[in-house]
Amino acid sequence: MSICLRITVSVGVQEGFLRTFVQKNAYNLDVEGVAQFLDNVKAQIIACGSKDLVDQFVDVLHQGMRQYQLDNIELEPFARAKDYRGIFRIIE
Fold first, then answer.
1. Which burial class, exposed, middle or buried, applies to 22 when counting CB atoms under 10 A from its CB (0-12, 13-18, 19+)?
2. Does residue 92 lie in a domain region?
3. 80: pLDDT confidence band, cut at 50, 70 and 90?
4. Is residue 59 part of a domain?
5. Residue 89 placed within a domain
6. Contact at 8 Å (CB) between 32 and 49?
7. Strand duo 42-50 + 32-37: pairing
8. What is the domain extent for residue 31?
9. What is the dihedral of CA 39, 59, 3, 42, to 10 degrees?
10. Using one digit for the tens of pLDDT, what is the confidence trace for 16-60?
11. Is the four-CA dihedral 68, 23, 46, 91 of positive or negative sign?
């Protein structure tokens, strides 16, 4: 079963968060989607893939709470609006 989640999170330490942490773990778990900072504090991540792998991806985000000072992780189902073509992109 394939799912998509919209994940919104407050990030205290932004350096390396999207590329080093989010994108790397998305590739390792075969999760596709996009991530970007919405402002100076909030990041939005769209993660799509098999339910088990997306669940593991969310678990990895929780493991990064201390290192990146993450707070207020919000998860909501997301209807896939486009094909991510099997990759995870960072929007800057």
1. buried
2. no
3. confident
4. yes
5. no
6. yes
7. antiparallel
8. 2-79
9. -10
10. 999 999 999 999 999 999 999 999 999 999 999 999 999 999 999
11. positive
Q: Measured between alpha carbons, how far is 77 from 11 in angstroms, rounded to an integer?
A: 21
Q: How many residues does the chain have?
A: 92
Number of domains in the chain: 1
State the CATH number of the domain containing residue 71: 3.30.70.100
Q: Which long-range contacts (CB under 8 A, 24 or more apart) does 46-50 make?
A: 46/4, 46/5, 46/6, 46/7, 46/78, 47/4, 47/5, 47/7, 48/2, 48/3, 48/4, 48/5, 48/78, 48/80, 48/84, 49/2, 49/3, 50/1, 50/2, 50/3
User: Alpha-carbon distance 84 to 82, whole Å?
Assistant: 6
Spatial separation of the C-alpha atoms in residues 58 and 71, rounded to whole Å: 13
In a domain, 88, yes or no: no
